[in-house]
Write a structure and sequence with these properties.
It is built from 24 helices and 21 strands. By secondary structure, the protein is an alpha+beta fold. Strand 17 (585-588) and strand 18 form a beta hairpin. The longest helix is centred in the middle third of the chain and has 37 residues, at 318-354.
């Protein structure tokens, strides 16, 4: 222990005695450790933290999936009833969906974000209310559903944390205004599942869809495994149940399976690949930093050969020298790690600020004790990693050679080979990061320059929810939207107005099954399907979607007129190849209704990495109205300028219908691009840092080599070598190392970039242009790093060089 403390004291004296060298080493380590600690704080908070509920490993998510119809995530309420009756491995099935209520307040009516849930949801999560109680099973029946729960945040914001609200009534309106008794206050832990965004909860029985047909799928289902039951056992049971339901109800369940996943894993499934990629990227940056520091220590050790020889002559053994050099490396690393932890506080705040809102559990991301321990442990390992090769190489002491003034010593060859190997590894690792950044950058460019099939400029969007109690018939709903459209169209600066049930960037409706008239029904019962949209007469004009054939909807397409439809180009190509679809009839399987195709429009793209253009059918909302609808208004100038006029005109149509979710299409596109922008920026920053470190490392090695070879250069020039020959010699040395590193990096990139497939859009994981371009970029930067020391070598005076040693 005395020897170790002596080495520590000497290491700290060395650190202070060489401030320039120490500062460079400590900063390189600090940036590497700080970046790793920051990313690990995300991994720790998002991927490694448990849900804040009792026995979180028993919590599961159940979904119904049909790959042919792209349905996932939602469950049929009717099927759920069968699951609850038949399952022996799962308990406390809990169903929920988002909702909205208008709440009567002293300041007037206001919409609140709401959720509707079965009693089993809160029982499955095993949560305890802050005050009051949760829903009772009998309160999930019609007529017994006039109770409500409020969130912790809403309780604090709207009721000042007053517990007396429990037992009081609030006036809520969905179809009509009714009194709901507040029976409890939910804890803030629901925020970790994203359910904290709902201010008010009501029993799921208030949803009229609860009693619709089995094919309606609109529930999210959480549940809890019975004690001792594994997910695989529960999955096997649900596979049997799914098969039975498909046989019993083939029209509604054919092709559907039931999937069970851990609720915690399912919540982070979409962000796990990106976070693990970030962790791998900063790991590569740290390895490059280690290689850089190791090169610096090797160069410094070469200058200390005489010191090591003297220590050996005084009795220091090789183990003693290795221990001393490792201690110095660890001290450098721990000091850099401590500074890196301080940097990580700032880096984490920056990453959280620019991160997309789609990352779950973002409130769990912080530098807690686990992250600090990780950072300091990584610092210790890093110190050992970059200190090991210099320590082993420098501990081989030849007393006779090293004590001679000016001799290189026997370890010069080994040290040179180690430095070359470290440079090659830096170049290879940097190339992998740069290619990853290049692929993500190309993806982002593809998304930004995507031709969506509509014009997003000067488009204002918002939602309207006319109350069902006042607009009970489809004709009444259609008339409401017609009046609203006319009012909005009369606003100065408005070019056109279109209504839609779900359009570009709004989200889509569930697919509808159809059959082309004249074609036989499939024997399997698996009908073709398409996304459907209910739109107003001027929707295509407002969105500037091209009409390729036929016509748009017009005012003559009323409820009493024959049913008509417009299809997109993909549907025309897929189901009417080589035929003219105009005038053909589509038979809607569920509705048992025929629609004549009167037009074909261009495909519409969404700014999402996993976007796939599917067949689409457009209905006229005057023939098939929907209560909830979006509006798209195209204006001459900035559309935000007409928001006040839109709200004013809506008061004239129906003062009880608020204008909700006002935004522009440009803003929605910007939100959709936040995730790819974040991914590209982060990996780009890491790749840029890697490129800088690799080029600096190469420059340092070549510069050191020039210094060591000054005598050799003098001899060559004396024997007739021209300056350009010396230039080629030095540059060639660096480029050989670079090209070897590039070759190794290309091979590693071909293998590693395949894990990025889910993050790429219209870009191959082995895109040849990206691979070639990045290789040329890295080679060019390396050439520049070799250029300066090569120019210095050209100016060596042979007479001075020959007297150098």
């Amino acid at each position: 222990m005395e020897a170790i403390f002596q080495d520590l004291r000497y290491a700290f004296r060395t650190l202070v005695r060489n401030p320039g060298f120490s500062t460079v080493v400590v900063l390189i380590v600090a940036f590497g450790i700080g970046a790793n600690a920051a990313i690990f704080s995300f991994v720790n908070g998002v991927l490694l933290s448990n849900l804040p509920f009792p026995e979180p490993d028993r919590l599961i998510l159940l979904t119904e999936r049909n790959p042919e119809k792209a349905k996932s995530g939602v469950v049929s309420p009717r099927n759920l009833e069968d699951w609850e009756r038949q399952s022996k491995t799962i308990e406390n099935f809990g169903a929920w969906r988002d909702w909205s209520f208008k709440i009567e307040t002293p300041e007037g009516p206001n919409f609140v974000s709401a959720g509707i849930a079965s009693p089993g949801l809160f029982k499955a999560l095993d949560i305890k209310p802050v005050a009051g109680r949760l829903f009772l099973p009998e309160e999930n029946q019609p007529g017994r559903d006039h109770v409500a729960l409020i969130s912790y945040a809403y309780w604090q914001a709207s009721f000042g944390g007053d517990s007396s609200i429990v037992g009081q009534t609030i006036r809520l309106n969905r179809e009509k205004t009714e009194s709901f008794t507040v029976v409890g206050i939910l804890p803030p832990t629901l925020k970790s599942l994203g359910l904290g965004r709902f201010d008010v909860w009501a029993p799921v029985s208030v949803d009229p869809d609860q009693y619709l047909e089995r094919y309606v799928r609109n529930r999210r289902v959480y549940a809890r495994l019975k004690p001792g039951v594994s997910i695989n056992e529960a999955q096997a049971e649900m596979d049997v149940i799914a098969k039975q339901l498909a046989e019993q109800y083939p029209k509604d369940n054919a092709g559907f399976s039931i999937t069970i996943a851990s609720l915690g894993d399912a919540q982070v499934r979409d962000v796990r690949p990106a976070l693990l990629m970030f962790l791998g990227a900063v790991g590569l940056v740290l390895l490059i930093a280690c290689a850089n520091v190791a090169n610096l220590l090797l160069a410094r050790a070469s200058a200390r050969r005489k010191e090591f020889a003297i220590r050996a002559a005084l009795g220091a053994g090789r183990a003693c020298l290795i221990r001393q050099l490792l201690t110095e490396a660890v001290v450098f690393s721990l000091v850099g790690g401590a500074i890196g932890v301080l940097l990580a506080f700032w880096i984490v705040d920056l990453f959280v600020a620019i991160s997309p809102g789609s990352i779950p559990r973002l409130d769990h991301v912080k530098l807690d004790g686990r992250v600090v321990v990780f950072a300091l442990s990584l610092s210790l390992i890093t110190g050992l990693l970059f200190g090991l090769s210099p320590a082993i190489g420098s501990s081989k002491v030849n007393l006779v050679e090293h004590l001679k003034e000016g001799q290189r010593g026997s370890t010069a060859g080994l040290a040179a080979r180690l430095r070359a190997l470290l440079v090659i590894s830096q170049v290879a690792l940097a190339l992998v990061l740069l290619i990853g950044a290049g692929l993500l950058g190309k993806t982002f460019v593809r998304l930004v320059t995507l031709q969506p099939g509509f014009n997003p400029e000067n488009l204002l969007t918002f939602q309207l929810f006319p109350p069902m109690e006042r607009y009970k018939k489809g004709t009444e709903v259609a008339a409401f939207y017609q009046r609203a459209t006319e009012e909005f169209r009369s606003i100065p600066g408005v070019q056109s107005v279109g209504a839609t049930s779900a359009g570009p960037q709004f989200g889509g409706n569930e697919p509808v099954d159809f059959l082309v008239d004249g074609k036989p029904a499939p024997a399997s019962g698996e009908y073709p399907h398409a996304r459907y949209y209910n739109i107003g007469p001027d929707y295509f004009r407002a969105m500037q979607i091209n009409v390729l054939a036929g016509r748009e909807f017009n005012d003559r397409d009323t409820h009493d007129a024959p049913g008509v439809a417009i299809i997109n180009q993909t549907m025309a190509r897929r189901h009417f190849a080589g035929e003219d679809p105009l005038g053909r009839r589509l038979l809607l399987v569920r509705e048992n209704q025929a629609l004549e195709i009167v037009g074909v429009v261009g495909d519409v793209r969404r700014f999402e990495v996993d976007d796939v253009v599917e067949p689409e059918i457009y209905y006229s909302y005057m023939q098939r109205p929907r209560w909830a609808s979006y509006f798209a208004i195209r204006t001459d100038a900035d559309p935000i300028g007409i928001v006040a006029a839109v709200r004013s005109r809506m008061l004239g149509v129906d003062k009880d219908v608020p204008v909700l979710n006002v935004t522009t299409i440009d803003q929605q596109i910007s939100t959709a691009l936040r995730a790819p922008r974040f991914n590209t920026a982060l990996i780009g920053a890491f790749a840029g840092l890697a490129l800088l470190l690799a080029s600096v490392g190469l420059y340092a090695v070549i510069s050191y080599s020039v210094t060591q070879r000054t005598h050799e250069i003098g001899v060559r020039m004396t024997l007739g070598a021209a300056p350009r020959d010396i230039f080629r010699l030095i540059v060639g040395q660096g480029m050989i190392l670079t090209l070897i590193g590039v070759a190794i990096g290309l091979g590693a990139s071909f293998a590693l970039t395949r894990v990025m497939l889910s993050m790429l859009f219209e870009v191959s994981a082995t895109d040849p242009l990206t691979f070639a371009g990045i290789s040329v970029l890295l080679t060019s930067v390396s050439l520049l790093a070799c250029y300066v020391p090569a120019r210095r070598a050209m100016r060596v005076d042979p007479m001075v060089a020959l007297r150098h040693e």
